[in-house]
């Protein structure tokens, strides 16, 4: 789309949509608008929630309204692009051993490569945090290499442990809770993404980048080493 789509959401939010498909350009536009709104310190803005190609802007309906916030968005978009914060780069350990990676052999087979080649492809991905969603601490990363992009599985696996490294399509994440998933489980990490810190509840910020580093099972800490 040539210009973003601005849509009212209930009585206290608007949604700004930059594209219908996930692209790096659309997500960069989301981050630029988010940065501009943070810099503006506009009265009445309560929260901004970035996603793949959209930004949800929550406001206090006693202090402002949909039209005023939409006007603020248009004014922000008409100005030179705001400078986004420099992304932090996170080094995340992952073990691809046996039972910690129950879907890795199937992923390699469907991708037409060996297990080691599939691991190498995953490690070579250029990952960035696009959004949080679905469950606490679920940081959706873009950047899975084309060679590993598979549709979700036809049936979910139950009881997938926290710390599992999952892929589906162009996306990757490290789970934070034990729960079912239809994504492909290709490894295990000991990264602590949920934090006991009210000022910073998650390890990653949207826009941060991730590099995966292969480790042995005995190098993982805590329950992940099991």
Automatic annotation (TrEMBL):
Coiled coil: none annotated. It comes from the Bacteria. Residues 4-204 form the Carboxyltransferase domain. Pfam families: CT_C_D. Keywords: ATP-binding, Hydrolase, Nucleotide-binding. One of its GO terms (molecular function) is hydrolase activity. This is Allophanate hydrolase subunit 1. Signal peptide: none annotated. InterPro entries: CT_C_D, Cyclophilin-like_dom_sf, PxpB. It comes from Paracoccus albicereus.
């Amino acid at each position: 789309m040539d210009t973003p789509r601005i849509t009212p959401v209930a009585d206290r939010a608007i949604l700004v949509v930059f594209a219908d498909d996930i692209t790096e350009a659309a997500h960069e536009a989301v981050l630029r608008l988010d940065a501009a709104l943070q810099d503006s310190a506009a009265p009445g803005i309560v929260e901004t929630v970035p996603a793949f190609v959209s930004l949800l802007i929550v406001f206090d309906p006693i202090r402002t309204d949909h039209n005023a916030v939409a006007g603020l968005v248009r004014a922000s978009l008409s100005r030179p692009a705001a400078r986004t914060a420099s992304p932090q780069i996170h080094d995340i350990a992952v073990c691809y051993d046996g039972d910690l990676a129950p879907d890795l052999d199937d992923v390699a087979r469907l991708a037409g490569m060996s297990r080691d080649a599939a691991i190498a492809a995953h490690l070579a991905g250029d990952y960035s945090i696009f959004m949080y969603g679905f469950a606490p601490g679920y940081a959706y990363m873009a950047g899975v290499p084309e060679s590993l992009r598979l549709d979700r599985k036809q049936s979910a696996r139950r009881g997938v442990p926290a710390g599992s490294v999952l892929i589906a399509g162009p996306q990757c994440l490290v789970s934070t809770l034990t729960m079912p998933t239809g994504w492909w489980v290709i490894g295990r990490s000991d990264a602590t993404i949920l934090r006991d810190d009210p000022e910073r509840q998650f390890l990653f910020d949207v826009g941060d980048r991730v590099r995966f580093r292969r480790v042995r099972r005995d190098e993982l800490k805590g329950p992940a080493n099991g």
